[in-house]
Design a protein that fits this description.
The two termini are 20 Å apart. Strands 1-2 form a two-stranded antiparallel ribbon. The protein has 5 helices and 2 strands, in the order ααααββα. The protein is α+β, with helices and mostly antiparallel strands. 15% of the residues are buried. The chain has one domain: Winged helix-like DNA-binding domain superfamily/Winged helix DNA-binding domain (Arc Repressor Mutant, subunit A). Strand 1 and strand 2 form a beta hairpin.
């Protein structure tokens, strides 16, 4: 399997779960704390934390600390690069 295929598989696993997708939707408005995400998606804090851990493993989310607070964000650079690579690959296939 190509590297691109492996990365697309991770993307699929990341957004293939409704709760993880809902978390990503919350993060589309900008960096958020776990407590804010919990309120928006109406899941328990442990469940949100587990989903965020998975999203980080799939490179879809990054985190940064500001004092005691941890803010989670969509990994825009990674996602953009991945989708650009996918489009490029599809365009190459279309030409053949």
């Amino acid at each position: 399997m190509s590297d691109l295929c492996n990365e697309i598989e991770k993307l699929g696993k990341g957004i293939g779960n409704a709760n993880r997708y809902r978390i990503l939707e919350v993060l589309m408005s900008g960096p958020q704390t776990v407590s804010h995400i919990v309120k928006k998606v109406e899941l328990s804090q442990p469940a949100v934390s587990q989903h965020l851990k998975a999203l980080k493993e799939y490179n879809l989310v990054t985190d940064s600390k500001d004092g005691q607070e941890v803010y989670y964000s969509i990994n825009v650079a990674y996602t953009t690069k991945l989708l650009t690579s996918l489009v490029s690959s599809l365009n190459k296939q279309k030409k053949h």
